[in-house]
Amino acid sequence: MDEYSGIRTGRHCVFLRHAHVVFVTKFRHRVFTGTHLTRMEEIMRSVCAGFETQLSEFNGENNHVHLLVGFPPKIALSKLVNSLNGVSSRRMRQEFPELARHYYRASKLWSGSSFAGSLGGPPISVLRQYIEQQNQPI
């Protein structure tokens, strides 16, 4: 697959932005089964669609999930992450009441911390060299 095959366009821009997002369960409790992860992916895809973003990859284990999300410049990554966190926690606890027994003091599924890292494109050194070579006589 070509590294630029995912280029998207907006009204006034062309972009290729991705973030790797990781959510960890509160207290790192091992609570998810395959059924939970399947439903979690559906919920995450629904939230992403509402933000006009694309969930490219989803996977997880019994105590955390990984997402690869393509998002446009108009979307603040922090708002997307907060929405993914809140909506998925609320819906999973509603649909799977058995998850609540792991969180008797807290009504939250996820840890208060998450990871969101942007990625893609060439390394900084290649960009720096490209920019330095601009406007030089050929």
TrEMBL record:
SMART domains from the UniProt entry: Y1_Tnp (SM01321)
PANTHER family noted in UniProt: TRANSPOSASE FOR INSERTION SEQUENCE ELEMENT IS200
Residue ranges occupied by any Transposase IS200-like domain in the UniProt entry: 14-134
Organism: Nonomuraea rosea
Record's protein name: IS200/IS605 family transposase
Pfam families per the UniProt record, alphabetical: Y1_Tnp
The gene coding this protein: tnpA_1
